[in-house]
Amino acid sequence: MLEFAADIEHTDRKTLFAEVILPLAISKNYTYRVPYEQNDAIAIGKRVVVQFGKSKLYTAIVKSLSELAPEKYEAKYIIEILDDRPVVTPRQLEFWEWLADYYMCNTGEVMNAALPAALKLASETKIVLNPEYEIDKANLHDKEFLIVEALEIQPELTVSDIAKLLGQKTVMPILKQMFEKNIINISEEVSDRYKPRRRTFIILNPVYNNPENLRELFPILEKRAPKQADALLAYIKLSRHQKNITKNELIEESGAGESSIKSLIEKDILFAEDRNVSRLHFEEDDEAGNTFELSEQQTEVLQSIRTRFKEKDVTLLHGVTSSGKTQIYIRLIEEMVRNGRQVLYLLPEIALTTHIIERLRMYFGADIGVYHSRFNDNERVEVWQKVLSGEYKIVLGARSSVFLPFNDLGLIIVDEEHETSYKQYDPAPRYNARDAAIFLANRHNSKVLLGSATPSFESYYNARTHKYGFVELTERFGGVELPVVDVVSIAAETKQKTIQSHFTSVLMDGIKQALENKEQVILFQNRRGYAPILMCKICAYTPKCINCDVSLTYHKSSGKLHCHYCGYKEDTPNICPACGSTHLEYKGFGTEKIEDELSVLLPEARIARMDLDTTRSRNSLQTILNNLEEKKIDILVGTQMVAKGLDFSDVTLIGIINADSLLKFPDYRANERGYQLLAQVSGRAGRRGKQGKVVVQTYDIYHRVLKQVIDNNYADLYFTEMEERRSFKYPPFYRIINLDIKHKNPDVLANQAIYLATRLREHFGERVIGPEPPLVSRIRNYYIQSIMLKFEKDGISIVKAKSVLRDVITQFQTTKLSTGSIVQPDVDPY
Question: Which positions does UniProt annotate for Zn(2+) 2 binding (predicted)?
Fold first, then answer.
């Protein structure tokens, strides 16, 4: 009887198979066999360790479970299940599938972009010790001890190295535990931590709140330390009007100097206290909580948004710069949190909008999480887990925040929705976070609010055709007027010899006036480096990158020539390599040269530069912004970074050094983007109580877009441009898919591109344009040919078109002709 019972038990035994997503660019998911003893532990969304290929181990995500074995191959066993509960939700898996389908990539590529590195360990993942963790070796297990000892000898080890060290096949569970204990980091993701804005506040010793004690103290100080007496008097004066007094405010008010304040602190008359503070200036009652009052127009707009949300899932808020859109966002977030739902607040440049992070934290406290590239991997995983558990009700983040595991998303706010930073260009998935957010909201049955002073034409078109709701905010908050825009001719001033270096007399006079008034200036030049081109005056030779088809840019700070595409550097030549001439000269100018020449023209001014080169190191960006707010900087020179998220009360003058570089660009979006950038940069001036001024330097003072910027006439720009878009078959009337074909041999590439374009024309006819080389036709030693496909919105199924396109690419990749090539589809590339 016992033997018979055992046979029945064996007959009823289930064999489960798991389809998993691997973090690789493969077109199909693999299926693995689940060990019987793990049947109860396996679940969709959990991570598992699997072997792929001969020996490599990967962390995969379980996508589905069944009892059907794969037909074409024998399923290998899952090696390990890493999680007690799923780390990816069913809605996320749907979202990944949609992204892969819409943007024509593989689900594994989406997974690779979506998950923090620490959640997808593989054989070649590199492990390092966490430098911020003090390791007590007495508390380590034997295997943890061996790994720590090895990492102290060799600072970086792969997962495979650690497996060999311990003499076992999989070490991922051990590494997972060590990661959770903060002992190790994933080396690819070791990056700067977000640093909050800090200020030193001064507080009077409570003993001197007694007027009698204060009266006794003053004669002593006036006799022995008159400057300290002045400082104390200044403190009492300030304290009558404000509760919180910063050290810098006290120094400025008293004129006594930092040493006098320091002496008062040493004598325990004053106390110093460092605190995290908001980057924005608030009234005192604002700092206590969400007590701000909306203006009449803001209240009307808020009610209009609520009404639109009853009819539409997506609403566009078109509000001029400094109109108080953030306050409206806060009210909507409050309502959503009260209803127990989650909110995602997307920003294009998270590093430049830290004041919004702190402002929201002031209102919502521990309910808010932040997710962006300046967090290290430990912090990203922590945010991931807190969103999954529902601990974070609000998430503020950059484009990658759309991948977080929301359970009940009620609202997505896409601030500055027009920004190109929302588009991921490399690697796949080449998604647009704004568009992805709209699909994500649909999966959660939630609403999307798009906000911008200069909306993208696609969003504005959708609003005008009633696909989206539409609301306008036309007044600046507090009734501050938009800045005066003054367009100045570079050509005329050059002819009259009134231009100094790259600064017209109008701009230079404006800068001097602002400095006299103790106000601040921002100068915008859309190119970093010192000079774009080094050229030989005799033979016109220009140094080029050895890997890319671009000229090298001279950077004075490093003394080298740099490639901005692949990072290649070389020493600056003194002699022309082509003709031997010593007559080499720099052509053009970037932010570095503007900063350099301005320091000669205005030696007393405190000048700083904000571009990619000056913001690479730890906290450098924060330091620049802190110094600007604390008025340690008079003039800030910068690239597009200065157009986004800066809000400072004393910036009254904006100078645009050369507007032609924005408007004379071979791109159908040049006018749209030129207007957006000019309007956004202009919006940095005169944001609180003072009307600002903008000086635009250009060779073409009659350019249509400049007049539209002066008149703040976005509608005129839109209608003019849309006529051209319709005529020449561009978005929003047509959809565009770009195919980039890459190869290291230009002749082979030419044949491949012609073959592929011919096959595509058999299906799509005149909708296929090209192939032709792009503006930069070689990057990292790969030559590039581009094919553009334009599909009308009506009369053709884009889903079917993509299916045919995939089949053509697959068929091409099966031919010998495709050897050595890379084909990269980019859906909605602009």
Answer: 545, 548, 563, 566
- Write down the pLDDT at residue 588: 67
Among positive and negative, which fits the CA dihedral 268, 273, 279, 280? Answer: negative
Q: Are residues 89 and 145 in the same domain?
A: no
Using CA atoms, how far apart are residues 580 and 538, in angstroms rounded to an integer? 9
Are 206 and 185 found together in one domain?
Answer: no
Q: For the chain, what's the residue count?
A: 830
**539 is known to lie in a ligand binding site:** yes
d(CA 667, CA 656): 21
- Look up residue 819 and give its amino acid: T
**Judgement on whether residues 136 and 207 belong to the same structural domain of the protein:** no
Q: What is the pLDDT of residues 760-786, one digit of tens each?
A: 999 999 999 989 998 888 888 899 999
Q: How far is CA 694 from CA 178, 506, 522, in A?
A: 54, 11, 10
Same domain, 515 and 636: yes
Residue 579 annotated in ligand binding? yes
State pTM to two decimals: 0.78
Mean pLDDT is lowest, of 18-27, 118-127, 812-821, for 118-127
Whether residue 148 is found in the same domain as residue 35: no
Please report whether residue 181 resides in a domain.
yes
- The reply to whether 548 sits in an annotated binding site is yes
Spatial separation of the C-alpha atoms in residues 432 and 828, rounded to whole Å: 8
470 and 334 housed in the same domain: yes
Check the annotation: does 576 bind a ligand: yes
Q: Are 358 and 259 members of one domain?
A: no
**Torsion, CA 796, CA 797, CA 799, CA 804, rounded to 10:** -50
The span from the CA of 696 to the CA of 659, in Å, is 7
Q: Are residues 252 and 159 in the same domain?
A: no
Q: What are the tens digits of pLDDT across the range 639-688?
A: 777 666 566 667 888 888 888 877 877 778 888 988 888 888 777 665 55
Number of domains composing the chain? 6
Q: Residue 23 sits in which domain range? A: 2-115
**Is 105 known as a binding-site position?**
no
pLDDT for 289 equals 46
Confidence of residue 248 (pLDDT cuts 50, 70, 90): confident
